[in-house]
Design goal:
The chain starts with a helix and ends with a strand. The longest helix is centred in the middle third of the chain and has 21 residues, at about 165-185. Strand 1 (about 40-45), helix 4 (about 55) and strand 2 (about 65-70) form a beta-alpha-beta unit. It is globular and about 60 Å long. The chain has helices spanning about 5-10, 10-20, 25-40, 55, 70-80, 115-130, 165-185, 190-200, 225-230, 250-255; strands spanning about 40-45, 65-70, 85-90, 100-105, 130-145, 205, 220, 235-240, 260-265. With about 270 residues, it is an alpha/beta fold. Strands 1, 2, 3, 4, 5, 6, 7, 8 and 9 form a 9-stranded mixed beta sheet that branches.
């Protein structure tokens, strides 16, 4: 399977990301939460991709810097937003930035989920290092306890309603079977419900889903485990946001969404 960096650096993916300029409801909630302190703050938009969040956070920050490990993403950002500085940089090794360089770090769109568990912890420690003493960190991650997670690996008969011919239905059905069998093969489990139950027992783990068409595995984690990771990396004051945008610790609310958003402080 391909590395995430190779996938995200492809021209087609970079252009697609460069065309996006919206923010999610929880990202808007995070922006409102930190907006009062952004005016004089030094902000790092890590994993900036094609600059999707630049339009919203850049004008509000005292100093805005974007970074990504995919050079094609960085070039697109520089062309779109010449007024800001963008760097090619891997979050696991940010030696180009000194200790305490930023007051706010954003790592959106589940960028941390591209890494293994050990690399994820390295990334969290690096983010902590470049934050100022009162710095804040916001990010999102795939929710292992999303109530519809197992649905990603089931045949969706209802999706065939738009196919008006028997031939069209058979092609559509065959593609779904192939996709599900392929994901089962990549995850080395014919019964994905059992595989996901095992991941949930560990409270974290990687799996191949449909987000990258099965080209690379994605890290999933539960809220409690993610909070433990943040505390181990030197963060505190941890708030969680549901996909609806509400700040909540309710499992019922959080598990309605595939992603959970986190906001925390350097301890």
């Amino acid at each position: 399977m391909l590395e995430h960096k190779v996938i995200y650096n492809s021209i087609d993916i970079a252009r697609d990301y460069g065309s996006r300029d919206y923010i999610e409801a929880p990202e808007l909630a995070l922006l409102k939460e930190v907006e009062g302190s952004l005016a004089g703050a030094r902000m790092l938009d890590m994993g900036v991709g094609g600059g999707r969040t630049t339009k919203y956070f850049g004008p509000r920050a005292g100093q805005y810097i974007g970074a990504d490990y995919a050079p094609n993403m960085v070039e697109i950002c520089r062309a779109k937003y010449p007024q800001y500085d963008f760097y090619e940089c891997d979050v696991r090794d940010m030696k180009i930035f000194a200790d305490g360089s930023f007051d706010f770090v954003l790592f959106s769109y589940n960028g941390l989920d591209s890494f293994s568990h050990s690399d994820r912890m390295v990334a969290l420690e690096e983010i902590n290092r470049v934050l100022s003493k009162t710095g804040r960190f916001a990010f999102s991650s795939h929710n292992l306890y999303w109530r519809r997670l197992t649905d990603l690996f089931r045949l969706k008969i209802r999706d065939m309603d738009g196919q008006t011919t028997m031939g069209g239905r058979m092609v559509h059905y065959s593609r779904q079977i192939y996709k599900n069998l392929r994901l089962s093969y990549l995850n080395r489990s014919l019964i994905m419900e059992s595989f996901i139950r095992q991941l949930r027992q560990n409270e974290r783990g990687s799996l191949y889903d449909n987000s990258l068409n099965g080209r690379a595995s994605v890290y999933y984690v539960g809220r409690d485990e993610q909070i433990r990771q943040l505390k181990a990396a030197g963060f505190s004051g941890i708030d969680t946001f549901a996909r609806s945008g509400s700040c909540t610790s309710s499992p019922q609310e959080l598990n309605r969404g595939a992603w959970i958003y986190y906001l925390c402080r350097k301890s």
